[in-house]
Amino acid sequence: MRVNRNNKGMSSVEFALILPVFMLLLFAIVEFGSAFYKQQILTSAVREGARIGMVATDPRPSATQVQEKVYAYLDDVGLDSAQSFVTVNGAGGSAGDVLVVEVAYPANFMMLSSLMSSSDASTSGTTTLTARTTTELE
């Protein structure tokens, strides 16, 4: 059996071929993790807003108070609440009425926005993440 000794640069070529694919995969994992983290923050923020809005108090919290709670939560966890848009429907109603709290937040991604096929994805890398909670007033 004869061993070919002319393979000196082969490992460098293989590394050069695999490195871009590996870096792309690593970058995609980090960016998806960031998107998932921001989505969980938005979900928690609307739950906090719904929680304050559904409690039976006299007087009931207004839509503005619920919005302020969501904005405060986003500020507390490090997201810029000035970029978010919060809508509240049904605040201040009577027991059994439906309360809907929704937040939209523009998140900047380099790779995920171009890969997503939604209509709000643009070439600038901004995708709008949304979260919504629906509950009944106590």
Q: Uncertain regions: pLDDT < 50 for 5+ in a row?
A: none
Structural class: alpha+beta
How many helix segments? 3
The secondary-structure element order is HHEEHE
| Shape field | rod-shaped
Largest sheet, strands/sense/barrel: 3 strands, antiparallel
Q: Say how many strands there are.
A: 3
Q: What topology, given as strand order, has the largest sheet?
A: 1-2-3
Average per-residue pLDDT, rounded, comes to 87
- Provide the number of structural domains: 1
Task: Compute the separation of the termini in Å.
Answer: 83 Å
The oligomerization state is single chain
What is the helical fraction, as a range of percent? 40-55%
Rg over CA atoms, rounded to whole Å, is 24 Å
Percentage of β-strand residues:
15-25%
Summary, kept brief:
With 138 residues, the chain is α+β, with helices and mostly antiparallel strands.
Q: What labels describe this entry?
A:
138 residues, alpha+beta, three-stranded antiparallel sheet, 3 helices, 46% helix, rod-shaped
Question: What's the arrangement of secondary structure elements?
Answer:
Layout: H1 10-54, H2 63-77, E1 85-89, E2 98-108, H3 112-115, E3 126-136
Antiparallel strand pairs: 1-2, 2-3
Helix pairs in contact: 1-2
Explain what this protein looks like in three dimensions.
This protein is an alpha+beta fold. It has one domain. 46% of the residues lie in helices and 20% in strands. The chain contains three helices and three strands. Strands 1-2-3 form a three-stranded antiparallel β-sheet. A hairpin with an 8-residue loop joins strand 1 and strand 2 (98-108). Helix 1 (10-54) runs antiparallel to helix 2 (63-77). It is rod-shaped and about 90 Å long. The chain starts with 9 loop residues before the first helix and ends with a strand. The model has no long low-confidence stretch (mean pLDDT 87).
